[in-house]
Amino acid sequence: MTIIKAIRGTRDILPTEVGYWQQVEKTARQIFSQACYQEIRTPIFEQTTLFERGIGTNTDVVGKEMYTFLDKGDRSLTLRPEGTAGVVRALIEHNLYSSGGVQRLWYTGPMFRYERPQAGRQRQFHQIGLELIGTSDPRGDVEAIAIATDLLRNLGLVNLHLAINSVGTGEDRLLYRQALIDYLTPYQQELDPDSQVRLLNNPLRILDSKDPKTQEIAQNAPKIIDYLSQPSREHFERVQQLLTDLGISYQLNHCLVRGLDYYTHTAFEIQSQDLGAQATVCGGGRYDGLVKELGGPETPAVGWAIGLERLIILLQQKSAVSIVQPDFYLVSRGHEAEAKALILAQKLRYLGLTVELDLSGSTFAKQFKRASRQGAIACLVLGDTEAETDTIQLKWLKTQTQETLTIAELLAKIPDLNKQLAANK
Q: Whose CB has fewer CB within 10 Å in the chain, the N or C terminal residue?
């Protein structure tokens, strides 16, 4: 019989790896909570028009990468390729902005893009993202960047650098767009095929090309910062000053435009020197026109997303994450002993201990070997004799010391056992 395997571009997150994911999620929740961000959960599929209007029909995401299908009602639906559009749709639909002030939101979950699978880049991938909605203040840009920086630092990551740029307003980009077309047109035949197509319909995306020859040409292209209006320039200068004030180092990257059409003003990426070609861990920026574009009131906003697969690669390179190790491994053999072991395991778990109950029914020797493989600190042993006398054998695996206790004595000395467990870890 043919073995059914996971679909290309998807992967299983196995128990040996899940600890890294849990570490990221736990750290992120703590960082977000301290900054008063609240979690929001949106559906994994939406109306296709949400992404066409929100992301832009001239982007690679909409033009090439979306998983779009007709449901049984002949409605065009799309598995979400990113998180921001869905969050903004929810904001508008539920009038979250009606109370005034800013909305501080975060999300996590799977996203879907039809891309060539490679290390840290899958067709089903996962993101943690943050959205700060309702302020045009440059402090909002810097708060978002600072929280991303705090999260990565708290996870112990090093060799990271922040790249920033300003893509200005729509009016700024119109002026820059023509200057960029004028510069690139003489090089049209030297550009990669995708960039040749983009030259007229989305020339700014050429700056984001990964093709070496196109990158070489783009290095001498006009810089968008020279086409910014005075307010846009002042906004970007304020962002840079505030980053400096916070001690967050950065580099200006005049080719950084990000891949989605909704960005305005600040665009940024946090990259790792340890990831090779796919170096970006976190990317984001300001998107002051998106809420209005999707039917809401004119509302400025800024946000970012972290790709979890790439982040996990970095954590795995850095250190091992400990798997769940039992405090006690409960060994039992015999009909009555096995029944009592089950009851005892549940009692100990209720008292806050980590207990693995062996269900194999195999010999004591084999059960002890499994206890060692699982990294248990101690074994609790129930056989026929113990079942008859309501006692248990407590064996510390590190020292191989052993004592006999009644079940009542064992339960009564849990505080002392916790100290011994800590000492034997």
A: N
